[in-house]
Amino acid sequence: MSLALVGLALLSAALHVAWNAAARAQAGRLRYVWLIMLGGAGFGLLAGWPWLAGIDWAQLWPWLLGTWVVHALYFSLLAQAYRRAELAWAYTLSRALGVLMTAFLALLAFGERLSPLAWAGIGLLVAGSLWASGGLGRPQALWRVAAIGILIAAYSVIDSHAVRIAPPVAYIALLYTGAGALLAPLALREPTAPGDAWALLFGGASLASYLLMLFAYRLGPVGPLLAVRQSAPLLAAFAGYAFLREPPRRALLAGTALIVLGAMLFTLVPSR
Whole-model pTM above 0.85? Predict the structure, then answer.
C-alpha cells in the first residue's frame, strides 16, 4: 500500500474528527450539527446531481428511508453526547462500540465467521472501551454512546448495501438531505449563534471524509485502509487536548490505544 493511499485514509480520519470537534466546540448544539448535515447535502448535491437521473428509485427507497431514520437519530444523540462529555471520550467509545456492533451484526445477519485474531481484536476493543470509560461510571453518558455505536453499526450495514444500487456521491447527498429534513423541526427550535456559517464548511469536510475513503478503496486493499482509518480516536484525543483544552486522562489515553490496536487488528483480518 503506497504512502499516497495511507495519506488519503489519514486525511479522511482527520476530516471526520474535525467536524466532530467543531460540534463539540459548540457544546453539541443540535442546530449546529444540523447545519453540518445541510452543508454535506449541499456539497453532495452539487457533486452528485448528474447521477440522480439514473437511480433505480424502486430499489433504493427502502434503504433511503432506513438510513434517514437511523442517521437522524445518530446525529441527534451525537449532539446530546457532546453537550455532556468531552470529544475524546464520546468519540472514542462510540466509534469502538460501532466497530463491535458491526462485527456482531455481520455475524448474526450474514453468517460471517471471525478468525481467532479478529476475536482478539474484539477483546482489545472491549477492554479498551471499559478502560477508557472508567469502568461502568457515567451511566447517563454511557447509554448515549452505546446507542450511537448501535446506530453506527445499523447505518454501516444499510449504506454498504445501498451504494450497490446508487452511485455513492448521489446516495450520500440524498442521505444528508433526508436525515436533515427529519431533524429540521427540532433543530430550528434552537437559536442561531455566531459561527453557524462555519458548520456548512464542516459539512463539506464530513462529505469529503467519506468520499476520500471510497476513492482509496478503488485504488488499494480495503482491510489495511480501514485499519489506518481506525487511527481517528487518537486524532480525536489530540484535537480534544490541543484545540478544546480537554485535560488528558491516563485511563482514557490508555484505553484509546487499546481500542485503536483492536480496531486495526479486527479490520486487517478478513472474515470467512
Answer: yes
